[in-house]
Design a protein that fits this description.
Length: 249
């Protein structure tokens, strides 16, 4: 694990998952129901913005118009903020800092609650559903950043030809891992022409595999995971999945 890649996993993986959180959880949406802020996170290894308005969030890559600009002189400073041991440098919108320490912090705390399940919490079917959907999204976003920036990740991606890998749950979310010139990005929805696919039979199976409760080979053997398409894409996708816990563990 390196700090530069971890900073991108945090900014382009963890924060991007907030888009989905407010779609799933009314309490989270209510926290920002009256907000109208655009927060820019400026880092040497990647800049992005969160457009937060009327209970919705949009994650945008790159710099642009904003109401608050938080600067991080080095990638490690991004990671320290996420670990709770550091803070950014506000270069714009210092008078709006209360939004960051108030509603925005409340929002990230709700996300953390979903991403740190306990056996007791998982007894609630709705919590379990939301945990699975959020985990699938954050793992996919993190995987793309690892493939594009981590040394071992780039090696795996170098063996993946151009095409779409369809990652989906029957009756649940669908994500496309789009491969172009050995770089990966995540797109919502269904691919018209997937080169490979990994489809879970339902959310309970997807959640069990993602949380490590169900061995993936067992799920494949029971036809609870459908695999198909170009084998090297699937093989190297699994190698990338194996790197994700090093960054999100």
């Amino acid at each position: 694990m390196d700090n530069a890649t971890l900073s991108r996993v945090n900014l382009f993986g963890v924060l991007r998952t907030l888009e989905t959180l407010v779609q799933l959880d009314d309490k989270a949406a209510q926290v920002i129901a009256h907000a109208d802020e655009t927060i820019q996170f400026t880092s040497p290894k990647g800049t992005m913005r969160l457009v937060i308005k009327n209970g919705t969030i949009k994650h945008l890559e790159g710099a642009g118009p904003n109401t608050m600009n938080l600067a991080f002189p080095a990638p490690i400073m991004v990671n320290k903020m996420f670990a709770g041991t550091g803070a950014p440098v506000p270069v714009k919108g210092i008078r709006r800092i209360k939004f960051l320490t108030g509603p925005f912090t409340d929002l990230t705390n709700i996300l953390t609650e979903y991403l740190m399940p306990t056996p007791q919490k998982l007894q609630d079917p709705e919590y379990r559903r939301r945990n699975t959907i959020l985990t699938l999204h954050i793992a996919s976003y993190a995987l793309a950043e690892i493939a594009n920036h981590d040394v071992a990740g780039k090696e795996a991606a170098s063996r993946m030809r151009d095409g779409d890998l369809q990652l989906a749950v029957i009756g649940g979310p669908a994500l496309i891992i789009r491969i172009k010139d050995h770089r990966l990005r995540v797109v919502e929805g269904l691919s018209n022409h997937p080169s490979a696919k990994m489809v879970f039979s339902d959310l309970d199976v997807a959640g069990g595999v993602l949380r490590g409760e169900i061995p993936s080979f067992e799920a494949v053997g029971k036809d609870q995971i459908q695999l198909g398409g170009f084998v090297p894409i699937l093989d190297n996708f699994n190698k990338l999945l194996g790197l994700v816990p090093h960054y999100l563990g």
